[in-house]
Amino acid sequence: MVWPLRKTSVNPFRPGIGRSSRAISLALVLLSPRLYGQEPVLENSWEEEADSQPEWTDQISPEEYNEMEELQQLEDQLLEDLQVHQPRLWFSTEACAGVSEHLVPLGATTFYRVPGVQGGLHSIDSPRDPLHPGERESGRTSLAGRLPGRFDLSGLQPLFGLEHLEYDQIQVYLHFYTTRGRRHLANTLARGGRYRQMIRQELRNAGLPQELYYLALVESGFNPIARSRAGAVGLWQFMPATGRGEGLIVSRTFDQRRDPEASTQAAVQHLASLYDRFGSWTLAMAAYNAGSGHVSSEIRRYNVNDFWRMDGYSAIYDDTRRYVYRIIAAALIGEHPELFGFDGIVLEPPQRYDTVEVPGNTRLSVFSRALDISVDRLMELNPSLLVARTPDVETFALDIPFGSESQFVQRYDRFDPSEVGQGHLHRLRFGETLEHLSEIYGINGRVIRVANGLARREVLPYGSEVVIPLEESDAQRRLRDLPSGGGLMGQEMPVVITPAIQFDYPDRQRLFYQVQATDEIHQVADAFGVTSYDLALWNDVDPAAELLAGMVLQVFPSPETDLSQVRYLAGDQVRILALGSPEFAAWDQEQQQRSLGRRRHYTVRRGDTVSSIARRFGVRSSDIIRWNDLDDPDHIRAGQRIRVR
Known about the structure:
By secondary structure, the chain is mostly helical. It is 39% helix and 8% strand. The strands form 7 sheets. The protein has a 3-stranded antiparallel beta sheet with strand order 11-10-12. Strands 1-2 form a two-stranded antiparallel ribbon.
């Protein structure tokens, strides 16, 4: 009789295929693995989650990111291969007609040896029951029962306080790390040499097991700037709230989760508190991954506080249980490399650097000149800095290249104090954006964002002080050349469509305001000293409806209104077209023909900005942003093809 397949979230067969056909197909693959390029599969005791995600993202070097992604894919493939049938399954000749003329047992005495490994394995006999005692009652079947061999772990010193290590789940990951994941684990173990001495010293100081070092291996691959899709960051992958709870500073300019030493001290403190709560390192590691609340609720739900018994009941998240297995397997290999063929790995040397006290809120370029190194190199040494500026504190401990402290002190002390200054301070007027400041001062928007510690899409409120990295004299010269109201220089005169009804106030000047993304009608009215109903009347807008960015409103403010902190356009800076007028009809026809005509594109060159491209082609920056659906106008790259007409 052909056994039916148990449903799992990973289905190697085409959707819609019948149950019997699936079983026959599986039998064909099992009987002729070379023909079908498959290894025999067995029942998977862990159900794969469809939305399982790798634990790292692209805030690391491309090489290391690809390595981690590939490792995750290899692990997923392992669990997919170790899948779906009852142990000691037999297929009948009727089910396998034309393939085999006799019954074929799934299982035979095998021996397994990893290249480079001397001993350490014994045979798996067909009659052997692979069920762990804790799994027998729950009816779950082990993955390791179908591995081609087992590592002999008897006599090894226990890790994480475990009395013995002969768990099938650990065997699965030892098999994985010594075969498919071998190269990746070797690379990560070597990279861990940068932090091994520091991490293990912190663990010793706190009286915690040295093997917790491998938790960072699984979390981040020993990359201090790794960032998960969920927002966890650093060697120990702290979420913002957890990091702050352990005393780390997490802000838009400074993130101590990326500081190897500070985050390690916080991780040691966090792990110690989890162990105090659960009294078991396996449960503490599970809680580190899934949260102590989840582990506590599972303990109450099953009335069991032994991790391996809970594993037998499928308690705790599947990914979290696998997380614990990975750490234990990595620790076994890392602590006994000679038994697994990893003894030839050369660890990278520990990171060495000098530390100096420098002023807060200071550009890194000031320090890089004193050191004769690039700002990028300085940020690499100080991964907690998210911008090229020290945080807003009185003094900051800056890491500099090893052996350069004396040179730095001598050269930095001779600097003119004005070189450490803020640059020009510009107060953001109502209606003004960083894009406008980029055009006013002729500075790339990315430079302004970095100087002020701003995220890519961060919007500053009006009235904020913005640091412009220019000499004060140069900044003042640019401001003197600015037209009244802050209209931009050297651009094609924007077209403004006004209502058909005309307004005339002899004692008032008509001005125009371009709506920004965060503006509300009452805010615009307040800025010009008028009411929302005035604006609605003058512009045919609904005072209860939302204003859209890019709209241009005509305003008739009182002469007594102070508009020094408002960005506006005067009547002679725009082309006014009244709805229904012959001029509007001609312009509208021209626009329709232009939209039907051939669009013009431009390939971005090094040094180009949206503003400079707009000036070159006589269009507005806002049009280029809209045509190309740019989330961040400051972020265009050389070689990018954009629409300019």
